[in-house]
């Protein structure tokens, strides 16, 4: 209806303008007492220079008035007169051909109104005295031909036409923002397709009436000007970024365009804002920033490919290239965990990841900053399970966002878990943004659930990480891992057995940055042979930690040779029972594979691979892990968390035997991290 009656408002307005110009050219020159001089060069010269006045709140010149005007203030007052140039864009849904109509209509409106305003300023400056220009609020009606009432009618119709256009355009814009879920607080204004936004129209009308009731448009126009300038600067900035960054999708139909024009336009908008009122500008920018922050936190809007996203993409590419493929210096090293979400498959199908894995991944990053990659492997054929993988990826991504973890979700379909992980560890990541630490939970369930395939998968993953030069962190007791609100007390104990590039030390320091562990202290236990100079070793380690700028208490534990016969009597009864049970299980397993090999006439095989079993060496490994476990229980039973070096799987040993070693190592330790570094330093050493 408004579009239909628009000509009824436009024609009288154009006729009024025509009458004004006729009146200017026919103004009488024989009545200077009225202030209307007709078109004279003298009036033009007298009015050419500026003479800013003080006015009262009604805008009438008053030497004692509270309002002082200058050029910048008048720009803010006048600017709303030129803000109709985006009316076509705001109502683009009503246009038949937006790509053709918006550029032509916008430019034509800009040129026509600019020419009309400039000519009007020059003609009025030549047709009346300065005092008449300042005091006659309806000079257009005074000079109009044939009588002032025509101008009064034109002003009323112009106001009604503009107001009705705004009262139909603004509510639709508000409803569109609401439908896109950009601002959740505006959800009340949502409407269906083709429906009228009644609630948004009432809200818009309420705002308009509130502004009218103020009774002085001079107080409102600077505020309106600020928001229009912000809008225009945003549009210009988006065009500038898209053109400068050469986005493939940026193909404007209007060919006479260059990024420098957009940058100039955005800069002019900001400059004009500060010239009009720096205080209004600061408030407007702060309000816009708060809205942007609110949208980024609460909004659920889709991605429309804005200019900033294109800038982020180009910046990421440039940063990735600048990182290169060379090793990162220890000062710039960041942990990038590859979190194995469901390696042992004992979670409900609708749970994409262990609930505590994201908490632990955050503990490996300083202040939660950094990237984690959460992966799952689906067994099967890719063609058959592609849709399942997409659904699982979406579910895992939702979990990551829910846990407020900076990370990405990846789902891989592979014939089996071993092949899937081997592909992931070789290809995941780009350049120096490849994951450098593999994180997974310890398979505590394997014997309880009689999952005989787990040992070979577990050992295979560790060996793949060693070959791919990835660090490994295995978490035992993940169910008891504290969240950010569960404060821990006591110590973080490190059992430093082999050189790992400082990864274990770095992890302990990262744990201290979390609220849950900030009250803990670090203890470093060094395991040494009996004939080692303990005091010298302690001094060396203390000096090393000092050079690393790390605070920790150093404790050297001297242990006799790993000989079960020499120390068997010194072990607690429960430890010896665990050792005896492990020896019996290993013995039964070895007897089984030997019987199979003898029956089939093949070399000794385990998990489809030839193995070499030295029973004396197996016995030594069992006792070594038992001794280390007893030491941990003796010194660290009350520790908040224990970190210990992860022993590599012995070459040619059956995976089953390695799992027995690990079970002895972690037995009765409630919260344990087994850490294996890789062939490089991750901490800086300044001496």
Main sheet attributes: strand count, strand direction, barrel closure: 10 strands, mixed
Helical fraction: 40-55%
How far apart the termini lie comes to 81 Å
Computed CA radius of gyration, to the nearest angstrom: 39 Å
Task: Determine the number of helices (DSSP H or I, runs of at least 4 residues).
Answer: 23
Give the mean pLDDT. 83
Outline type: elongated
Strand order of the largest sheet: 5-4-3-6-7-14-13-8-9-10
The beta-strand count equals: 14
Please state the structural category: alpha/beta
Sequence stretches where pLDDT stays below 50 over 5 or more residues: 564-569
- The quaternary state of the protein chains shown equals single chain
Work out the strand percent. Answer: 5-15%
Domains (count): 4
Membrane topology: Multi-pass membrane protein
InterPro entries: AA-permease/SLC12A_dom (IPR004841), SLC12_C (IPR018491), SLC12A_fam (IPR004842)
Family: Belongs to the SLC12A transporter family.
Main location: membrane
Q: Quick recap of the structure?
A:
The protein contains 23 helices and 14 strands. The chain has helices spanning 2-25, 41-48, 71-78, 87-90, 98-127, 130-135, 139-143, 149-179, 198-214, 217-244, 259-276, 278-298, 307-323, 357-363, 382-402, 417-427, 454-467, 503-512, 534-547, 564-567, 573-600, 615-636, 655-666, and strands at 54-55, 67-68, 337-340, 372-379, 407-414, 437-441, 471-476, 491-496, 521-529, 553-559, 605-606, 609-610, 641-645, 672-676. The strands form 3 sheets. The chain has a 10-stranded mixed β-sheet, sandwiched between helices. The chain has a two-stranded antiparallel sheet with strand order 1-2.
């Amino acid at each position: 209806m408004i579009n239909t009656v628009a000509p009824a408002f436009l024609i009288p307005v154009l006729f009024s303008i025509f009458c004004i110009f006729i009146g200017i050219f026919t103004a009488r020159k024989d009545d200077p007492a009225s202030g209307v001089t007709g078109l004279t060069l003298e009036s033009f010269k007298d009015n050419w220079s500026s003479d800013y006045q003080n006015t009262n709140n009604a805008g009438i010149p008053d030497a004692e008035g509270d309002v002082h005007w200058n050029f910048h203030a008048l720009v803010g007052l006048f600017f709303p007169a030129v803000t109709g140039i985006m009316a076509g864009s705001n109502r683009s849904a009503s246009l038949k051909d937006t790509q053709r109509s918006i550029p032509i209509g916008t430019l034509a409106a800009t040129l026509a109104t600019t020419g009309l305003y400039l000519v009007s300023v020059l003609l009025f400056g030549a047709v009346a005295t300065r005092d008449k220009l300042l005091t006659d609020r309806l000079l257009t009606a005074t000079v109009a031909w044939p009588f002032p009432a025509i101008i009064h009618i034109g002003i009323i119709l112009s106001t009604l036409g503009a107001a009705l256009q705004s009262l139909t355009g603004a509510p639709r814009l508000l409803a569109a923002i609401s439908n896109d879920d950009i601002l959740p607080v505006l959800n009340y204004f949502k409407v269906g397709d083709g429906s009228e936004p009644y609630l948004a129209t009432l809200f818009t009308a309420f705002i308009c009436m509130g502004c009218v009731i103020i009774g002085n448009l001079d107080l409102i126009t600077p505020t309106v000007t600020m928001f229009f300038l912000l809008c225009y600067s945003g549009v210009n900035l988006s065009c500038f970024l898209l053109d400068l960054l050469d986005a493939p999708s940026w193909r404007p139909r209007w060919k006479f365009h260059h990024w420098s024009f957009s940058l100039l336009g955005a800069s002019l908008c900001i400059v004009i804002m500060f010239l009009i009122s720096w205080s209004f500008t600061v408030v407007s920018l702060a309000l816009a920033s708060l809205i942007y922050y609110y949208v980024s936190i609460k909004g659920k809007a889709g991605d429309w490919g804005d200019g900033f996203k294109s800038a982020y993409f180009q910046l990421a590419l440039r940063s990735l290239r600048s990182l290169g493929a060379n090793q990162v210096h220890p000062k710039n090293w960041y942990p990038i965990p590859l979190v194995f979400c469901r390696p042992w498959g004992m979670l409900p199908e609708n749970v994409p990841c262990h609930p505590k894995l994201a908490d632990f991944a955050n503990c490996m990053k300083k202040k939660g900053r950094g990237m984690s990659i959460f992966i799952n492997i689906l067994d099967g054929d890719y063609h058959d399970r592609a849709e399942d993988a997409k659904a699982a990826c979406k579910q895992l991504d939702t979990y990551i966002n829910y846990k407020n973890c900076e990370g990405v979700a990846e789902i891989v379909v592979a014939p089996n878990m071993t092949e899937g992980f081997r592909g992931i560890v070789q290809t995941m990541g780009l350049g120096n943004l490849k994951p450098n630490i593999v994180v997974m939970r310890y398979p505590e369930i394997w014997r309880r659930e009689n999952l005989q395939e787990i040992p070979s998968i577990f050992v295979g993953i560790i060996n793949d990480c060693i070959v791919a030069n990835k660090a490994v962190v295995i978490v035992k007791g993940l169910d008891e891992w504290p969240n950010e609100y569960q404060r821990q007390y006591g110590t973080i104990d490190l059992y430093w057995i082999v050189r790992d590039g400082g990864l274990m030390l770095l992890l302990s320091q990262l744990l201290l940055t979390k609220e849950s562990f900030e009250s803990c202290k670090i203890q470093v236990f060094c395991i040494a042979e009996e004939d080692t100079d303990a005091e010298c070793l302690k001094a060396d380690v203390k000096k090393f930690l000092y050079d690393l700028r790390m605070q920790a208490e150093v404790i050297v534990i001297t242990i006799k040779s790993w000989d079960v016969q020499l120390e068997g009597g010194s072990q607690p009864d429960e430890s010896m029972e665990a050792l005896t049970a492990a020896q019996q299980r290993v013995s039964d397993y070895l007897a089984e594979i030997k019987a199979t090999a003898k029956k089939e006439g093949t070399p000794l095989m385990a998990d489809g691979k030839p193995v070499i079993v030295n029973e004396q060496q197996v016995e030594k490994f069992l006792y070594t892990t038992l001794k280390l476990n007893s030491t941990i229980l003796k010194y660290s039973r009350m520790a908040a968390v224990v970190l210990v070096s992860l022993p590599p799987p012995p070459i040619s040993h059956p995976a089953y035997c390695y799992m027995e070693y690990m079970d002895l190592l972690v037995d009765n330790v409630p919260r344990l991290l087994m850490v294996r570094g890789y062939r490089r330093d991750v901490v800086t050493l300044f001496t």
